[in-house]
Design goal:
Helix content: 40-55%
Number of strands: 11
Order of helices and strands: HHHHEEEEEEEEHHHEHHEEH
Shape: globular
Structural class: alpha+beta
Strand content: 15-25%
Length: 249
């Protein structure tokens, strides 16, 4: 089996992990399985184990304005979150994979503020809102959720600044490096992974046209920094991609 063919196994491995292994990598793992928790809260656990949803590619997990009844943790697969702009176009604001928290943006309003759509077949843990809110009465869990929300705010702010300041080559290089780091954080290869999102979706997220994304990826290939076969990516030269971020715009 070639290197690129092996990339396909990453998603399959993640999808068939045991519950304990998958939960260890989850943003909500500390909430579902905290090390120390008063007896009163034990009746709330496990929160996510009660309900899991399987989504097909293109299926919507939740939509803008929909009443929030829970929050979600991605157990396997990939989703995108997006909003609809005034001109009717869909704007991708985030990509989410195994272990990521989705749907927390609706906590302040009681309704979801984005659309969440599966990029491939996914499995999502559902954490009922009532149980989630009761668990947050425990101080350490409340602090942890505030930290999760703060990290998401920082991610969005930094991304917005980068889209306005970096060149196309820098944006695409940074995107590949971020995907690489996310795979590595989950125990997989940082050099081989699958991009389940389309060039158009990547472009929407980065503020580029899909043609620009395609040309930039082709340029990286001609430089022997990466190799792409359909959606399979093999990074051949991580330092070269990192160096792009230090070059003048």
């Amino acid at each position: 089996m070639g290197n690129l063919a092996k990339c396909e196994l990453h998603f399959l491995d993640a999808e068939h992990q045991g519950p304990q292994s998958a939960c260890l990598q989850c943003a909500f793992g500390k909430l579902c399985f905290p090390p120390v928790l008063p007896a009163f809260y034990q009746m709330l656990l496990p929160m996510a184990g009660e309900n899991r949803l399987r989504l097909k590619r293109g299926q919507c997990l939740f939509s803008v304005g929909e009443l929030q009844t829970g929050i979600f943790a991605v157990k396997a697969g990939f989703l995108k979150t997006c909003i609809t702009l005034a001109d009717g176009q869909s704007k991708v604001i985030g990509f989410h994979t195994m272990g990521d928290a989705v749907g927390m943006g609706g906590l302040g309003h009681g309704v979801h503020t984005t659309n969440a759509i599966a990029l491939n077949d996914c499995e999502v843990c559902v954490i009922p809102l009532e149980k989630f809110e009761r668990l947050l009465e425990h101080n350490s869990e409340s602090v942890y959720v505030r930290q999760l929300l703060a990290r998401e705010v920082v991610r969005i702010e930094h991304h917005a600044a980068e889209v306005g300041a970096l060149s196309a080559k820098q944006l695409v290089a940074k995107f590949l490096l971020e995907v690489s780091a996310r795979w590595h954080d989950r125990g997989y290869s940082k050099n081989k992974f699958v991009l389940f999102m389309s060039r158009k979706e990547i472009g929407s997220y980065l503020g580029l046209t899909f043609e620009t994304v395609g040309r930039t990826l082709s340029y990286f290939q001609t430089k022997d920094w990466i190799r792409i076969d359909a959606k399979n990516v093999l990074i051949l030269d991580l330092p070269a991609l990192r160096l792009q971020l230090t070059r003048p715009i």
